Amino acid sequence: MMIDRRELLTLSAAALTTVAAGPARARTSSDNPMDNWIIVNALGGLGDPNLPGDSLVPDLSPRVLAEAHASGLTMVNITLGYVSGPEEPFEASVRDIAATDRLIREHAAEVTKILSVADIRKAKTDGKIGLLYGFQNGAMMGNDASRVDVFANLGVRVFQLTYNPANQIGDGSMASQNRGLTPFGREVVARLNEQRVMVDLSHSGEQTCLEAARISRAPISINHTGCRALVDLPRNKTDAELRLVAERGGFVGIYFMPFVNKTGHARAEDVVAHIDHAVKVCGEDHVGIGTDGDVSQIDDLDAYQAALAKEVAERRAAGISAAGERPDTYPFVIDLRGPDQFQKLIRLLQAKGYSQNRIEKIMGLNFLRYAQDVWGA
């Protein structure tokens, strides 16, 4: 599920609050060792969901930047380009990349484009928020695998093969036939390996994920998912998928989404349960977080709830909805919102008995290890 800036509802401007953001500052020493941690959101957003708009291009307003810094976030994988809808996929994707490049130039004191692991570490040192460019649908490939080269040269470092439906690359999680990769999809995976771009199997069907993990010469990722052993929904991954991705050296990010609770009304303890299950299946070196949400939270939940039914109906009509999306479920975890979400998760993992070393891996170091394996030095 990806209800973010392109798919979030237009809310009343009266719900907005503004927080002044100061210039980025280099990190300083602190009595709290967690202040020096690298925190990575393997799939999320940098925007204000209270503002009207349908673009995936980040919103780098003073409030968004101030709250991102306050959260401790070091880097977030942002979705750019085509996901669904009437736009021409290739053109929409190039346009989003160009617009985001321009925004980063305009806010160079606050944010930076991530192309390497060294860039992530430098973002932490410089007190900036790193933006990692990624796709959530391979439709912009058309039938030309060489377009992988184009987007790699433009700085895209994460490539999710499918969204929920099937595309020319393979079957998504809601494609009933579960056919796996197409011949063209196998060609795309090989090209992504050549260009050292991450192959992301979030939203994929089970056979698509298993096949991609087997044929990829580099480790693959599932950047935002849950565990189907705990909640049996298509957007969650089976133990077979989780285990194979980990055995091949990959990465699994657990999301803050309704799919982590069978009722759809997800709480923070549900996220912890899915992290714990993933650690047991994958090992502690292969699990992280990919919230599928912004740091800034929706301020007027009543207004949002009143309009959510329309949003869900539109997604269903477009054929991009996932099982478990309902008008009475939020596309986020109600008590893991806002600038404190990462620190709250850390506290909950501590309460569960996780060591500081294990938590630091989950909050960022495991993604860095995976990125190093895929991108190289």
From TrEMBL:
Pfam entry (one): Peptidase_M19
Biological process (GO), any one: proteolysis
PROSITE patterns: RENAL_DIPEPTIDASE_2, TAT
Signal peptide residue numbers: none
GO MF term set: metallodipeptidase activity
The protein's name in its UniProt record: Peptidase M19
Organism listed in the record: Solimonas marina
